[in-house]
Write a structure and sequence with these properties.
Layout: E1 2-5, H1 7-15, H2 22-32, E2 37-41, H3 42-53, H4 59-70, E3 73-75, H5 90-100, E4 105-107, H6 111-114, E5 123-125, H7 127-137
Parallel strand pairs: 1-2, 1-4, 2-3, 4-5
Helix pairs in contact: 1-2, 1-3, 2-7
Length: 138
């Protein structure tokens, strides 16, 4: 399964690392499972770096995390039009990038994206739902 990760899931993954919350377990599971493909867009990594700066992550550690994420599939930020309207203009590029990557699912905690459900041409789910889907398959 091709899984596109939104910024908020990555932020939760790396800020909740010690507690091993759902986002952390999900990200680790996808990265380690050869049946799944971890995908992000350049816009996601840029936003991730900006947001993580608020958490005072040491620069060397942040660069190590970004380097590891860039070893996965990173697509350019899409500027193509999307088939639905979204309330938050910032979400347009996230959704367009996930569609361009031909991801099977977009995992996000963003309510503006979640309300679209399957109407955007891609399954959009929250981390817990995806975790339950993936672990049920195992």
């Amino acid at each position: 399964m091709k899984i596109f990760f939104d910024t908020n899931v990555l932020v939760s993954t790396y800020t909740d690392f010690e507690e091993k919350g759902t986002c952390c377990k999900l990200t680790d599971f996808v990265l380690r499972n050869p049946h799944h493909q971890f995908i992000v867009a350049e816009i996601i990594l840029e936003e991730f770096e900006r947001v993580m700066a608020r958490f005072k992550i040491p620069s060397a550690l942040m660069q190590e995390i970004l380097l590891a994420l860039r070893e996965e599939e990173v697509i350019p930020t899409s500027k193509k039009p999307i088939p639905v309207s979204v309330r938050d203009p910032d979400d347009i590029h996230v959704l367009a990038s996930a569609l361009e990557a031909q991801a099977d699912v977009l995992v996000t905690g963003d309510k503006d994206l979640l309300i679209l459900g399957d109407t955007a041409g891609i399954k959009i789910v929250d981390p817990r739902t995806l975790w339950e889907m993936l672990t049920k398959e195992e």
